Amino acid sequence: MPRPSKGPRLFLRKARPDKRQASVWVIRDGSKEVGTGCGPGEVAEAGLKLAEYIQAKWTPAPSGPNGAADPADVLLADVLALYAEGRAAKAPDPKAVRARLSALLEFWGESTVADIRRSTCEAYVAHRILQPIKMAKDPATARRVTDQGARRELEDLSAAIGYWHDEHPLTRRPKVVLPAKAESTRDALDRSQAARLLLAAMGWRLNPKTGKWKRLQKSSRLNRAHLRRFALIGFYTGTRPGVIPKLLWEESLTQAWVDLDEGIIYRRGKAERDHRTKRRPLVVIPNRLLAHLRRWREMDRAASIALREDHLKAGGDPLQIPQLVSVLHHGGRPLAGRIRTGFEGMVRDAGLPEEITPHWMRHTCATWLMERDAKPWEAASFTGMTTKTLEDCYGHHRPSNRARARKALG
């Protein structure tokens, strides 16, 4: 496997004991080292030298017709760095993109664009499926990265090469060979399964042997308060699971928020732009969910008052009084990331298959809409997906389709 590269960076080379050489900032780039002529106290000047070095490195000398560069002269580390700086930062989920780019960089290291071939792409997949997933606590027992996960990373590699090629043309653009795309195992929950999941979110556990439900202790029930909100919002609106934890009670320019007066969930902040592949249109809140949201809002207001009183009694700063501004919160704090561990425990306690993930709620909402024969463009707008995606993935659930077929057959 190629040696990983950390990319160009500053390093303070200390003075030699014999004092024949003073401390100086240098630029380290792989095995190469470039002096800056800047001493320890000239950090800003050294930073400018590093910026100039990187800029010069990302502007390769033309080696082909029409000023194009030879792929053998372009490091993949530079290609991925440019993509991370330019395109990845504007992606719907920048953190996930950075994680995939990190996995790519670990394998390709100091390889060049010319090293991309069918054999090296296959070697990458073979390498990745032996690696534990990144968030695993114990790598020895953790599940491994799937070939579909490796496929998604290679898709980013292909996109990064295209992004580089648009800025710095290549004499040829190598093809990134992807593993076959597997059929999705994701499905929708039926009404009884959804009810079991909600019951688990409320603090109950199903005994698979007796089929009876057991009430969990109070602390466990409190730990799942945010999961109840998460599940209900997911089932009733089909909102992507990555958006639900970002919901705020007040209008926001940068985050999704809830307008209880108008009965609308804005899936993106007023200043956020929509993404072509991850649409986030507003959604009118169904009446049953609206009642839950209003009740939760009153609960959070009461909790905020209690937090304020405790804060002031403890001698806290009156200008920094804590408030519950997030619809989903745990221990009074907004959720730091995606809901994974808690949801897995909820699925387990409900006695449901372990492959069920938060995204199943979105599939469930879309399926239920089609089973109720909702108009495709209305259902697509409601869930935030294209009409084509809705028809392709859920059209077979529409009862009117079968009715028309039976009528045509007499």
Architecture overview:
With 410 residues, this protein is mainly α. The protein has 3 domains: 1-52, no CATH class; 58-182; 191-403, Intergrase catalytic core (hpI Integrase, Chain A, Orthogonal Bundle). It has 14 helices and 10 strands. The chain has helices at 43-57, 76-86, 94-108, 118-128, 147-167, 191-201, 218-223, 225-237, 287-313, 341-349, 359-371, 376-383, 387-394, 399-408; strands spanning 9-13, 24-29, 32-38, 204-206, 213-215, 257-259, 264-266, 283-284, 329-330, 333-334. The strands form 4 sheets. A 3-stranded antiparallel sheet has the order 1-2-3, covered by helices on one side. A 3-stranded antiparallel sheet has the order 6-7-8. A hairpin with a 4-residue loop joins strand 6 (257-259) and strand 7 (264-266). Helix 3 (94-108) crosses helix 5, helix 4 (118-128) packs across helix 5 and helix 8 (225-237) packs parallel to helix 11. The mean pLDDT is 85.
